[in-house]
Amino acid sequence: MSHIEIRPALASDREPILAFCANTWEWGDYIEQVWDEWLQEPEGQLLVAVVDQQLAGVVHIQVFNETEAWLEGLRVNPDYRRQGLGRALNEAAMVEAMRRGATTIRLAVDSHNMASIELSESMHMRRVGEFSLYSAPPFSNPSSRSKQQAIRLATLEDMDTIIDYLNASNIFPLVGGLYYVKFQAVPITARLLEQKIKGQQVYLLQRWERLDGLAIAEPLHEHGEQRLSVGYLDGTAIEAISFIAYDLRLRLQEMQLERVRIYAPETLLIHDAFDGVEYEANPASFYTYERGLV
């Protein structure tokens, strides 16, 4: 019987791990881009599986705050699959998250990755949301459409109105009540809203003397590109979502950003709203899973 060891990754593990990750997808894998960051960050732990002294798998756990953790980057060498390594790595990562105080752990999987979906559900994780990605560059010739809409930055005085709006939203539960950034997610709480409002990262659409939609967005450098990352977008109808998506795209040039990318559920309403303002839809969709650790 093979001996399986799960241990923290070492700098010397890099090349053997990247070798079996090279063909994860047709285009390769992102592990090479994040390896050094994952290896060194104090808020997380990079774990590897060793089978008979051969590196056979890897996973990363990140703890965001006192209670929230994220599981990502699970890879198993094709030569060692169907030996329980994925489960062993996930279990070790969950133990590490608990050791660091996390009470909830989440992950995202491609909606077509049945092996990862089955593994997640067999480990008592439940699907809480889903999302797709929509993106667009700055307008080359913007119209005057957005000037007719009252889209503005939120203030702390808007907090109760925003919370009431989210409590009645149809989109909020579709994404699990989560704010997404860099393929990770945290709950949209009053604390997060306050933080984002103070950072001037919450945009409101008000029409007919009521809140008609909102977006939470932050500028970031991702994959060699300066982006406006929209981790949550909501609207009462196609028109409202379209107005906000248009306005955010319009702001790119002023913010000196190269692209806006939006995390949103894959619904007909959302798709039509983004299509109307010329956003490109990523063909992939993702499920978000969650499990309590206590």
TrEMBL record:
CDD domains reported for this sequence: NAT_SF
Taxonomic lineage: Bacteria, Bacillati, Chloroflexota, Ktedonobacteria, Ktedonobacterales
Protein name in the entry: N-acetyltransferase domain-containing protein
Organism this protein belongs to: Dictyobacter kobayashii
PANTHER family, A to Z: L-2,4-DIAMINOBUTYRIC ACID ACETYLTRANSFERASE, N-ACETYLTRANSFERASE
InterPro entries: Acyl_CoA_acyltransferase, GNAT_dom
Domain called N-acetyltransferase: residue spans: 4-158
A Pfam family annotated for this UniProt entry: Acetyltransf_1
Molecular function as annotated in GO: acyltransferase activity, transferring groups other than amino-acyl groups
